[in-house]
Design a protein that fits this description.
Layout: H1 4-15, H2 43-47, H3 57-65, H4 79-90, H5 100-103, E1 106-108, E2 129-131, E3 151-153, E4 175-177, E5 202-204, H6 213-220, E6 228-230, H7 242-249, E7 255-256, E8 259-260, H8 263-268, H9 299-302
Parallel strand pairs: 1-2, 2-3, 3-4, 4-5, 5-6, 6-7
Antiparallel strand pairs: 7-8
Amino acid sequence: PGSVSAAFQEYLQHLGLQDFPCGFGSWNKSRCLDARRSPWAEPAALEETMPPGEETPEALLELLRDQHSPWALPLDCSPQERLLREVAVLAPELLHGSRVFQAVKSLRILDKGVEEVDEGLLRFQQLEELILSANHISRVTSAHLPRTLKVLELCCNAVDDLQDLCAQPPPELQHLGLGYNRLCGPSQEKHLTVDFWPNLVSLDLSFNNLTDLLELVSQVSTLQNLHILVLQGNPLALIPTYRGFLVDSLPKLSILDDIHIRPEEREQFHGLARQPELIRSEARVVVSIGEMKGLPNPEAFQQLEFGSEGPVIIYSYCVTYEF
């Protein structure tokens, strides 16, 4: 699709909100006769006013809910998808045309080839959750994000810079998911402060290329509401004192790398935050070679006597490790 708006149009076609048994049509013409009727009215009460030959709301809802029906949604569909389709039966006028944008509070577009977060998102004036994981997004312009947003998940994309995202971020955002992207330190930490994210509770930066632990902690420590932080998979997580330094530096943190911080762990690492000299930009990797096959035995060449007329062959080997 290219853009989020194009992907949403495909999503609407998948839901079929204007097709039988949803939407307007000969099967439920009376839906448009009284727009004041509540979409939550009991089907039994509506049945009394049905014109002859028109399907009852109860019968139409049964076509949506029965898993053996050809119009039923898959079992793993979201509660919002079920709700939208049922509203499209009971009160399709609420989802007609541009009104559908007012009814969507959660939008999940996964692995749809999306590359652009376009300004069409601003039509979702009630949107609170936006999940755009496993796409091809490299830049996010904050001016295109609804101000009502509380959850923004961009896992498994190609985001390598946060400047555009932080220009005008949603003020009420509580979760920001940027795991499995291309963020590189030490240039991105400056965008992770309370000035941009005053209400952030959860931050996922896992599996990027962040390297400066001291700078990251100095910025993230300004997030007064932060309780969940995920940094595993970054080079800085290889530092020997990594977890202890974070636990002591961020006293309000409850979960680090999906592991709860216990009181005894805080006591164990108490005072480590005041020893930044222990944070070194290095890591040690020990590699043990168990067995190598197909190489000549060097002991056979050590048995040659000094001054022997036989040829002397010297072998040298280079073992390369890629990380």
